[in-house]
Amino acid sequence: MNTKKTIVLAGFMFIFAILAVPVSAQNNSCLDCHEKLTAFNETEKQLNEVRIKHLQRDVACSLECHATIIDKIAKSNYEQWTNSKHAMFNVTCDNCHGGNISSDVKEIAHTGVSRSSESNSSVFYRNVPDTCGKCHKDELNQFKDSLHYQNLKALKQAPSCDTCHMPHEFKVLNASQFQDLCSSCHNIDMKIAPEIPEQAVKAIDNAEMLKNEIRIADDAIKQAKQQGKDVTAAQKELDSALAIRDNLPILWHSFNLPNFQNVTENGVVFARKAQTDAGLPQTKPSTPGFGTILSLTGIISIYLLIRRR
Asked: In Å, how far are 107, 120, 127, 136, 283 from 131, measured between CA atoms?
């Protein structure tokens, strides 16, 4: 009897325990008890997930940390800009990025400024040419004739202004840098005109040769003037060479390397003609002298004698 009472009592206690415990507690969820620590909106939930991932990697997460990183990026961009041609000519951030320069309140100053990854941004990669073209109109017109621009507007990956000129630095690359940069697309593996990098280097080298020939012509004309010679014709040829040289940076943006090469070679012809008109003797390829010919004849004779033996 005592055993039966014990069993019945235990049964009642079990049923009471089930009925007394809230249904939510049966899920054994921490959030059911610690609801005060629960994120109440989706943004906070996402933030908590990020924090958990950071903690798993022993990375401390705080706004101060992220603010520091942002400051470093902004400082780096500013330092690059201060050493650029844009800084020299007072082309400031708002000229490219937009914004309200009349305000020193961050939110107001950044009105209308979008991230570079957003398609409505003035510095979105497909919009960059038009942004640069506000000042560099001639370069933009040349660039619009290029395959690079056509691919860019066709929503394909293609070089834009900041691909070559580097954002915030806006520097001009040298020949070896151009070769490395062009090779990233123009190579055998990608099968996109792999000859382009070498052609680009040759074109830049020829442009440097033109500059050198112009310097020689200019010195020759100055010397001829000091000697009282008429340099009218020479100066005219030099002016033609100078006009070509000064237009080369604009012409380059069409990326028509054969045409660039032809124009550069014409400039070299003008410069050398100016040198001649100024009285500078043209250097001729050296011809072998009598001693050289005699030596070669002797070597050939010895070789023939050895063969006969």
From this structure: 23, 12, 6, 9, 48
| DSSP for 230-257, written as a single string | --HHHHHHHHHHHHHHHHHHHHHTT--H
Between CA 238 and CA 147 the distance in angstroms is 33
**Which two structure tokens, joined as six digits, stand for 287?**
């011809």
Amino acid code (one letter) for 67: A
Q: Report helix angle 196-226 to 257-277, nearest 10.
A: 20
122-125 own/partner pairs: CB under 8 Å, 24+ apart: 122/96, 122/97, 122/98, 123/96, 123/97, 123/162, 123/167, 125/152, 125/160, 125/162
The backbone region for 168, taken as left when phi is positive above 0, alpha when psi lies in -120 to 50, beta otherwise, is left
What is the DSSP code string of 190-202?
A: TTS-TTHHHHHHH
CA distance 84 to 90: 10
CA distances (Å), origin 187, targets 128, 158, 184, 201, 261: 25, 15, 7, 15, 21
* Whole-Å CA distances, 309 to 40, 295, 301: 104, 22, 13
180 token code pair: 């490395």
Q: What is the pLDDT along the chain (309 residues), one digit of tens a residue?
A: 555 555 555 555 555 554 544 444 444 444 444 444 444 456 555 655 665 665 555 555 444 455 455 556 666 788 888 888 888 888 888 899 998 888 888 888 888 888 888 889 999 888 999 999 999 999 999 999 999 999 888 877 788 898 888 888 888 888 888 888 899 889 898 888 999 999 999 999 999 999 999 999 999 999 999 999 999 999 999 999 999 999 999 999 999 999 999 999 999 999 999 999 999 886 654 555 555 555 666 566 665 556 655
Q: Where are the domains of the chain?
A: 45-82, 93-171, 196-277
